[in-house]
Each structure stands twice: as C-alpha cells, then as structure tokens.
Backbone:
C-alpha cells in the first residue's frame, strides 16, 4: 500500500481543504511484482484482474514500465470481454492512486459553517452549455460547486473553450485560488491540474488511437476516476443519448449511467444520473461565444425552454444531494444566479459586462419547404460547428471563439420556405462550404398535418438504490 501524504491549503480565514497524495511511490513499487503479459492473457481469456494487479498495472503504466502496446492489447481485451463491477471499481481506484486526490471536507463559509460540495459531469453533447448557468445557479443557494472541466475534442464542445470566449477569463486556477473562490463566490470552473489521474491522461490518449474508447467499463472508469479524485461529496451525472452523444442508444447510455453511479457510490460519493436526449442540439446554439450568450439569457430568466428545463432538473438533483430544499427556477427569475455568475467570471479575470466576440462572416441556410421541422440532427450540427472552427481535431489545436451555429428553429417548430433555418458563424469564409456539406440531409421539414412525437428531454433517472 502506498503511503498517504496530505498537504493542506489554507483559505483566507484559515479554512482548509487539501490534496491527499496517494501518488505513485517509486520506493514502494515493485516493477517485477506482476508481468504485463500475464495480465493481458487473463483479460483475453475472460478472467478477472485482482485489485493488486490493477494497482500494479496503473502504476507500472504511468511509470512507463508497461509499454503502450501492452496497455493497448489489454484495453482491447477489456473492450471485447468487459469487466465485473468489483473489477471496474478496483481499476478505477488504481487509476486514482496514480495522482492527487482533492479533499474539500474542511471547506467553510465566513461564519465557519461547513460548505457542502457538489460536482456535475456531462458525457458531452452538441450545444451543451448547461455547466455555465448551472454552476452559479447551484452556488447561489450556498452549495459549493468545484467544477473541473475539459476542453472539447471532436464534435462536442468543451466548457473551458466556451468560457475562454469571455474577455480576460482564465481557466488555470491554483488550489489556493480555488478554495478562496469557493468560499467567496461558491462556484469555480477550472482546468484540471497535471497531477489529477495521470494514468487516465495517458490511457485516454492511447484509447483514442487504438479503437478502444467505446468500452463502458473504460469510459466509466476514465470519467469517474477524475470525478472521484476531484473530491466533491456529491456528484450528478448527465448521460447523453442520441446521435450527438457518445452513447447512441438509450440502452448503452443507461448501462454507462448505472456503471458510473455504482463506481461513485462504491467510492463514497453520493451519485445520481439523469439520462438526457441528444438527438438534436440542446438550445439554439452550438459553438463557443454563441453558447455563452445563450447561457447568459438563461441566467437572465429567459433562454430556450430545453436549456432552462435541463438546468433546473440538474440543479434540483444537485441541491437535493447537498440537503437543500429549494426550487432552482427562483434564482433564475430573481437574478441571484446572474449575480453569482458575474462574481464567478470576475474572480477568474473575466469581464462579465464586456461584449462577446462576434464572427466576421455569417451565412444563412434557409428552410427548404414550409411546414413543421421534424428533424435537426445533433451530430451534423456538431460537425458543422467544428468545421467552422469551434472545435479542435488534436488536443493542442486552438479554437475560434466566434465560430458556431445558431438554430433559428427546433424540431416541432413551424418553418417557412426560404426563411432562415440555421446561421453559420466564422471568421474564415473558406470553412463555410465544408460546414454546409456536414448539414446536408441533417434536417427534414414535413407538412403541417404530420403527427410528430418528439422524445422527452429527460429519459430516465438512475440512483444508487435502483442499481
Ligand atoms: N470522457 C472521458 O473522460 N473519458 C472517456 O473515456 C470518454 C469520455
């Protein structure tokens, strides 16, 4: 067992939170305790890894003792043969033990009262700007929201990329600043530090290039290792399903949600999940600054119905898990959530009153016919936004703040032939043709009389009790 080191970080009034370092300890690690080839054979032959084997594997892989080709063979064997619940839990714990673990149990407000902490994770979708209104909304009820977020890769956007379109806003936050901001504002949205689950950093990049991303135990352990290491007491998961989601079917989304709820629960984190629709984009924008603008409409008490509904549903879950009985819609109506948003943006160097950047070029795609819009595909809109410059193909690529797509209509709306259906935004007009190509066949208009049954926004709720 690795020795556990703990370093406390003091907030302004002496309130503390800490990093528990259960990190890889070269002195305690025996590179010859196991053989990577035996572990690969075990998974290839449908066996189950022991917790000691998983611990060794993650430490050895992080230290470069297990080679990438051995880890990719093992990941493929896991993808093909799966893992048991106990095995996935031990694998996840082993990943966490390769890095730092945050601990907010000493977080208090100015009066010395302990602050509950709640985190949220979305498996990613098109137009998913929910973290932006959600974090300040929940914080406005006195619950601390330490939200470590990522940048986008592929067709789904990243929360940090969106927030970076606000002039001056900084994603990099020290631990001390995070604690002070949680105490003074209640919410922080920041980039993960290098020390958080280094095994996942390596393994996720490897899975990306070896066709081993789409394994439920590997996805669940990757997400939950980071979320558990982030140290919040409660966690609410938004597991998306549909064309714009990682999990295309509701069966796969439900299995992923159950696996993640089980992992969180087994690690002592109160965890619930909502399974939500991602067949069509969320709200009326997909991109960076365009999504911030929409999030601010929601914080101002307006915004698209689906964004408001999902923000309030997730906020209700988060508040309930922190023991707060409140109707989240109230602080959207009375401006308290907007006040917290402004404070949150200012605390990270941003100017919440500054105008958001606008694209130099706009291109409108008209509705092909008059009638009811029956379909507008999330994946196609995500690819179009990406091709306009809102997303990146490789981790190190820059993104354009101004690139994105606005939806002038949503499925179920009446449209008129020739009236705008979608507006494309970019600084680089040479990108428009490829974005238009992505949208070919992505929408359908039917006559007014067509009976249309739209899927619900929230498909299901998964709790630990129901596992
Ligand atoms: N997001 C993650 O962090 N990990 C995965 O494996 C998939 C999505």
Residues:
């Amino acid at each position: 067992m690795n020795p556990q080191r703990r370093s406390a970080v003091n907030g302004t009034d002496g309130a503390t939170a800490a990093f528990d370092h259960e990190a890889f300890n070269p002195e305690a690690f025996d590179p010859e305790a196991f053989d990577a080839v035996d572990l690969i054979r075990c998974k290839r032959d449908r066996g189950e890894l022991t917790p000691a084997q998983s611990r060794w594997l993650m430490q050895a892989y992080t230290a470069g003792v297990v080679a990438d080709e051995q880890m990719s063979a093992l990941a493929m064997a896991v993808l093909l043969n799966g893992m048991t619940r106990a095995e996935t839990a031990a694998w996840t714990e082993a990943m966490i033990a390769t890095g730092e673990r945050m601990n907010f149990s000493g977080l208090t407000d100015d009066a010395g009262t302990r602050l509950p902490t709640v985190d949220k994770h979305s498996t990613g979708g098109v137009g998913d700007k929910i973290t932006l209104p959600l974090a300040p909304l929940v914080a406005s009820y006195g619950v601390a929201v330490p939200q470590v977020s990522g940048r986008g890769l592929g067709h789904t956007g990243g929360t940090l990329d969106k927030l970076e379109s606000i002039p001056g806003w900084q994603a990099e936050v020290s631990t001390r600043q995070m604690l002070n901001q949680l105490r003074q504002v209640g919410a922080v949205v920041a980039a993960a530090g290098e020390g958080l689950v280094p095994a996942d950093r390596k393994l996720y990049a490897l899975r990306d290039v070896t066709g081993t991303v789409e394994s439920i135990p590997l996805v669940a352990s990757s997400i939950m290792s980071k979320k558990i290491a982030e140290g919040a007491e409660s966690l609410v998961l938004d597991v998306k399903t549909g064309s714009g989601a990682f999990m295309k079917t509701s069966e796969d989304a439900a299995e992923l949600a159950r696996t993640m709820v089980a992992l969180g629960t087994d690690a002592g984190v109160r965890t619930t999940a909502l399974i939500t629709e991602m067949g069509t984009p969320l709200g009326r924008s997909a991109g960076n600054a365009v999504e911030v603008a929409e999030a601010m409409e929601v914080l101002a008490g307006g915004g698209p119905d689906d964004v408001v509904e999902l923000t309030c549903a997730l906020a209700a879950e988060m508040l309930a898990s922190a023991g707060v009985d409140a109707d989240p819609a109230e602080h959207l109506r009375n401006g308290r959530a907007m006040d917290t948003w402004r404070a949150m943006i200012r605390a990270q160097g941003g100017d919440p009153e500054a105008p958001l950047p606008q694209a130099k070029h706009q291109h409108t795609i008209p509705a092909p016919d008059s009638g009811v819009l029956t379909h507008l595909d999330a994946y196609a809109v995500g690819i179009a936004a990406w091709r306009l410059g809102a997303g990146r193909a490789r981790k190190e690529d820059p993104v354009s703040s101004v690139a994105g797509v606005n939806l002038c209509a949503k499925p179920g709306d009446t449209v008129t032939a020739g009236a705008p259906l979608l507006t494309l935004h970019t600084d680089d007009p040479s990108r428009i043709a490829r974005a238009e190509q992505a949208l070919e066949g992505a929408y359908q208009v039917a006559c007014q009389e067509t009976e249309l049954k739209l899927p619900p926004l929230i498909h299901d709720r998964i709790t630990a009790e129901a596992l």
Observations:
- The first helix runs from residue 36 to 44.
- The radius of gyration is 22 Å.
- The longest strand covers residues 234-241.
